Amino acid sequence: MGRIEKIRVFSRKQAEKFDPPKGKCYAWISITTPGDEPAYIPTRKPYDVGIKRLSFHDIDDGEAGGVDINGEPYVAPDMQHAREIYSFVRWNIMALDELYIHCDAGISRSAGVAAALSKIFLDTDEEFFKTPYYPNRLIYRMILEVHDKQGDVGTHP
User: Which superfamily is assigned to 6-150 in CATH?
Assistant: First the structure.
């Protein structure tokens, strides 16, 4: 324990059906679309370290502005989201074996978060820049920027 061994990405549907392995301590980062209900995330006590829930649209560079199908303004990922994600992982790092991240499709938002955290904690983001992933580069860059500013300083989320 004390170093993340694996970071996995899921769609919301996969996450809601996933049965976490016994004996591995894990945490979830749950990303939903604004206006959607929170995802049901199965837990396995005492191995479940926690869930960080966030809500933002899959908006990448240059796509800010606009409205969703309900006429509500898009919520782009921002630096506050990036700080919350980074702080959550830093705060829990000593207890984590695995980190699970989901968004609706498991392709862009969660892959962008996973790529950044993999680069920081596993020294490579390569896995999340291959098919089937298409990482959201905006949240990816923001998490790396937060890491560059905060370094190894862990703060409570």
Answer: Protein tyrosine phosphatase superfamily (3.90.190.10)
